[in-house]
UniProtKB/TrEMBL annotation:
Single GO molecular function: glutathione transferase activity
Protein name: Putative glutathione S-transferase uncharacterized class member 1
Residues binding glutathione, per UniProt: 54, 67
Segments forming domain GST C-terminal: 88-217
Family: Belongs to the GST superfamily.
């Protein structure tokens, strides 16, 4: 049985995992989960992921949620070498640090500012903007301290897959990242050096760009957490 990924076409965590599948050359089936109709909130989906979140990996019956865990699993199980997830403890610690930073701060702040008001009844506030600046300041500093081409070293790792998808949310709302020159340079380099991976991300970015201009109508949704725009 091939690998199945339950994903959403404009979801940054899904797009991060899709880049790993592409990079590793893994045959897989993509099952699109329809966020708009709340397919991920059904009891059937909860059997796959009790958190009712997308993505979920199904590797021959082995079910795994949380995109960071999925990336780590795919790289460890299927990586031909250890480039995208180094075995050396210090190099791996830096990758893990970036993955944690993305989950706790970078993607969190960026998605709260960019995506939440796109889909739900939230506003972009000065506090949200401040947090986004903090996220970018932090990442710019990490790039400076490391002094390498990519987020955790000279070559792309699974951390870049996440950080790139988070950064594209800013591009989708036409947010200028040039005041963070190292982030901008890293992002541009990634697009240039990894066009096939970037294409996966870009497709999601275009969808978000369209939603930014024409917000989706989710008024029918009964969301357990987010206020729905009526
Ligand atoms: N920490 C999770 C987050 C996944 C996540 O938040 N996915 C979004 C779609 S992009 C989702 O399923 N949200 C559920 C909802 O808003 O109802 C991961 O990295 O996999």
């Amino acid at each position: 049985m091939p690998i199945t990924l339950y994903s959403v076409s404009d979801g940054p965590p899904s797009l991060a995992v899709r880049q790993a599948l592409e990079y590793l050359g893994l045959e897989h089936k993509l099952v699109n989960v329809d966020f708009g109709i709340g397919e991920h909130m059904t009891e059937e989906f909860a059997q796959k992921n009790p958190q009712k979140e997308i993505p979920v990996l199904d590797d021959n019956g082995f079910l795994l949620g949380e995109s960071n865990a999925i990336l780590q699993y795919l790289a460890e199980r299927y990586g031909k070498d250890d480039t995208i997830y180094p075995k050396d403890p210090m190099a791996r610690a830096v990758v893990n640090h970036r993955l944690c930073f993305n989950l706790s701060t970078y993607y969190r702040y960026i998605s709260e500012y960019t995506l939440a008001p796109m889909f739900f009844d939230y506003q972009r506030t000065p506090l949200g903007l401040k947090k986004t600046h903090i996220a970018l300041d932090n990442f710019n500093t990490y790039l400076k301290l490391l002094g390498k081409k990519y987020a955790a070293g000279e070559t792309v790792t699974i951390a870049d897959f996440q950080l790139v998808t988070a950064t594209m949310c800013l591009e989708a709302i036409n947010f200028d990242i040039s005041p963070w020159p190292l982030v901008k340079n890293w992002y541009d380099t990634y697009k240039l050096e990894h066009p096939t991976l970037w294409k996966i991300v870009e497709e999601g970015m275009k969808e978000l760009e369209a939603f930014e201009k024409n917000p989706p109508d989710l008024s029918h949704m009964d969301h357990p957490i987010h206020p729905v725009r009526k």
